[in-house]
Amino acid sequence: MPGVTCAFDLEHYRELLEAARTGGYRFAFFDQEPEPGDLLLRHDVDLSLAAAVELAQVEHELGAGSTYFLMTESVFYNLNSLEGIRALERLRELGHRVGLHAVWPRAELDSRFAPLVAWHNPQPEYMSEPLQGATNVMDPRFFSPANYRSDSNQHWRHGCPHKDLATERFEWLQLLTHPEIWVYPGETMGETMLAMLDAERERRLEQLRADRIDV
Ligand SMILES: [Zn+2]
Ligand SMILES: [Zn+2]
User: Fold this and answer.
1) Which of 94, 113, 136, 214 minimizes the number of CB atoms within 10 Å of its CB?
2) Which segments in the chain show pLDDT lower than 50?
3) Of the candidates 104, 89, 71, which has an alpha carbon nearest to the alpha carbon of residue 179?
4) 209: CA distance to ligand 2 center in Å?
C-alpha cells in the first residue's frame, strides 16, 4: 500500500478494512469462538456517540460489520436521551451489533444490548473473568495477546496492524478501536481530544437552541 501514513483518521481506517479484505479476513462477531480468518471489529464508545455513528457509516459503506460497546454510565453521553436512542437505532440499521461497555462491578444488561460485555478501563483481576448470562469479550476464547490489537490512547503498542492484516499474519484478530480517535483530527490523543471538544461545543450550542435557550 504505497503512500499509507498510518494516521489515526477515517482514511486510514478505510485502509485498515481494505487491508483486512486483502488478507482474506471475514468480519465476525462475538457470538461464537473465533475461527481462523475471523476479524472481530470492536469499538468501545467512551466519549462520543456522534463519532460512533460516523465510523459505523464508514464500515457500512465498506461492507464491514462490527460490535459497538456503549455505556449506560457515561458522564459524556446519555443513552436514554433522544440522541442516544437514535444512535443505538442507527448502529443497528447499519448492520452492527451493540453490547454493553460496563463499569466494574455492574454489568446490567437490558433489551438494548446483545449479551456482550466489555469492561471500561478494566483491572487485570477481573478483566477476563467469565460473566453470568453474558459473554465477556476479554474471555480467553476471544482474547490472547497474539490475536488482539488496540488503539488505546492513540497508540498501537505493537504497531499499526494494517500490514499484518494484508499479509494474513494473524490467525484471527480482535481489533479494538475507539471511534473518537479516528473521527476527530489530531496527531496525539491530547490534540484529538481538543478537536473533539471543539466539535462538542458546536453540538452543545445546537442543543441549547433546540432547548429554546437564547445563545
Ligand atoms: Zn497502518
Ligand atoms: Zn472504555
Assistant:
1) 214
2) none
3) 71
4) 30
How much of the chain is helix, strand and coil, in % rounded to 5?
35, 20, 45
Q: Which pLDDT belongs to residue 146?
A: 96
Calculate ∠ Cα 117-121-125, nearest 5°. 80
**Beta strand 38-44 with 67-70: parallel, antiparallel or unpaired?**
parallel
The per-residue pLDDT for 4 is 80
Question: How far is the first Cα of the chain from the last one, in angstroms, to the nearest whole number?
Answer: 48
Provide the pairing of β-strand 97-102 with 116-119.
parallel
Tell me which residues have their CB within 5 A of the ion that is ligand 2. Answer: 44, 46, 120
Contact 85, 116 (CB under 8 A): no
CA 74 to ligand 2 centroid distance, Å? 10
Cell of 142: 476471544
Cα 7 to averaged position of ligand 1 atoms, centre (Å): 7
Q: Residue 118 C-alpha to ligand 2 middle, in angstroms?
A: 8
User: 212 C-alpha to center of ligand 2: Å?
Assistant: 33
**What's residue 5's pLDDT?**
86
Q: Is 15 exposed, middle or buried (0-12, 13-18, 19+ CB in 10 A)?
A: buried
pLDDT at 2: 61
